[in-house]
UniProtKB/TrEMBL annotation:
Region (Disordered): 26-51
One Pfam family cited in the UniProt record for this chain: Peripla_BP_6
InterPro entries in the cross-refs: BCAA_transport (IPR051010), Leu-bd (IPR028081), Peripla_BP_I (IPR028082)
UniProt keyword terms in alphabetical order: Signal
Basic and acidic residues: compositionally biased ranges: 36-51
Signal peptide: 1-25
Superkingdom of this protein's organism: Bacteria
Keyword Signal: yes
Species per Swiss-Prot/TrEMBL record: Mesobacillus boroniphilus JCM 21738
Cited PROSITE patterns: PROKAR_LIPOPROTEIN (PS51257)
UniProt family annotation: Belongs to the leucine-binding protein family.
Protein name per its UniProtKB record: Branched-chain amino acid ABC transporter
Domain Leucine-binding protein: 52-391
Length: 417
């Protein structure tokens, strides 16, 4: 072979070697890349979100429902502790909560909720003490696509005509109260008058009670609505007396209760029996004239018999100088426990749509026993208590004594949304 031909052959072979080496190298890189991609998707977990979960709590720290706000906040803090075994952490994420005072004014509630959503960028809203405040805030939950746990506001319209999919209520609603209240006094031919404050809480409560009572054969012969801030109920009570009902069913919330004037005007001596929902301890102290009354209650500390309530009573007494948990303390605890349970199920994911799917139909433990968010309207189905007010030695107020526990199924309200 000539020198020129030999050089050509050598050059050609060198090119083939280089091409082969390049091809093998390319193949190896492609394979390696494919393996690495697969490991990235299957062999390694995506990094978990470790940012704190933020909860904005709206409560009446001032105003007519200040006591309710205080009870709810105490319960909420204890609920977070109980549900997280003292860590205030779920799925590797710390839980923080920010409290804002609505002042029991709807316009202030909207301002505070907007601040929580925009400035604090909370993942959840909780509240509030007033139905009026809560109804004003509901549209914001939908606008900002954030879950709102309603506690302790009770107006039916919250999970009824004003409902949106971001609303879940751990508080009972007016219809649940009504079913319990009607079960205590309504029967065929009974004539009943009602007294309530003239705003959504009172009007929804009376409407729901009337529906439940009439189903049992009773007749609501008069509805009386008073100024929510009133301290003089003389004219309201006189109108009721004039109707001569068998019972007066009272729907009330707040410190300015009508009990003293009902006593002063000798309503019961005129043959009119009184019935109502047993309120918080401070208001029970004003109900001395109603000893012997049969009605219902949402909660009294020695009625529920379960481990969660036992813990709540013991811890509350330790933390707050021997004070007992009051009417809305377990509700605050329940709201916290519901949030933690939902986050545990979503593994800390706060995506609202995922939370909605998780929470619809979700059952969870509470100081009042098992509750379930009804899928259709997100109302928590829960127990209430038929009671009689009695005097007990060593207690300076009439005590709600259990007649029987009304089951979640028994007190399930109509779906109104």
């Amino acid at each position: 072979m000539k020198a020129g031909q030999r050089n050509f052959v050598l050059s050609f072979m060198l090119i083939l070697v280089l091409l082969f080496t390049s091809a093998c190298s390319g193949s190896g890189t492609e394979k390696s890349g494919g393996t690495e991609g697969k490991e990235g998707k299957e062999g390694k977990d995506e990094p978990k979100n470790t940012e704190p979960i933020k909860i904005g709590v709206l409560a009446s720290q001032t105003g007519g429902l200040e006591a309710y706000g205080k009870q709810t906040l105490r319960g909420f803090e204890l609920g977070l502790e109980y549900a997280t075994n003292g860590t205030n952490e779920v799925a590797g994420r710390k839980i923080e909560f920010i409290v804002e005072d609505t002042e029991t004014k709807p316009e202030v509630a909207v301002q505070k909720a907007t601040k929580l959503l925009e400035e604090d960028e909370v993942d959840f809203l909780v509240g509030s003490s007033s139905s009026g405040d809560t109804l004003a805030v509901l549209p914001l939950a939908e606008e900002y696509e954030k879950i709102m746990i309603v506690e302790p506001a009770v107006a039916d319209s919250i999970t009824g005509s004003e409902f949106n999919e971001y609303i879940f209520r751990t508080a009972r609603n007016s219809s649940q109260d009504a079913v319990a209240g009607a079960a205590a006094i309504a029967k065929e031919g009974t004539k009943i008058a009602t007294l309530a404050p003239d705003y959504s809480f009172g009007r929804d409560g009376v409407a729901a009670f009337k529906e439940a009572a009439e189903k049992l054969g009773a007749e609501v012969v008069h509805e009386e609505y008073a100024d929510p801030a009133a301290t003089d109920f003389t004219s309201n009570i006189q109108k009721i007396i004039d109707q001569k009902p068998d019972y007066l069913f009272v729907v009330w919330a707040g410190a300015n209760s009508p009990w003293n004037q009902i006593s002063d005007m000798k309503v019961q001596e005129k043959g009119i029996k009184i019935s109502t929902g047993a309120p918080d301890i401070a208001a029970l102290a004003t109900m001395e004239p109603l000893v012997g009354m049969e009605g219902f209650t949402v909660y009294y500390h020695d009625l529920p018999q379960n481990d969660v309530n036992k813990w709540l009573v013991e811890e509350h007494k330790k933390r707050f100088n021997g004070e007992l948990p009051d009417l809305f303390t377990p509700g605050g605890m329940t709201a916290a426990m519901a949030i933690v349970e939902a986050l545990r199920k979503t593994e800390g994911d706060t995506d609202s749509q995922k939370l909605i799917e998780t929470m619809e139909g979700m059952s969870f433990d509470t100081p009042k026993g098992k509750m379930t968010f009804r899928e259709e309207d997100h109302q928590a189905l829960q127990a209430l208590y038929a009671i009689k007010l009695e005097k007990k030695e060593g207690v300076n107020y009439p005590v709600p004594v259990l007649i029987r526990e009304l089951s979640p199924e028994e007190t399930a309200p109509p779906i109104r949304n």
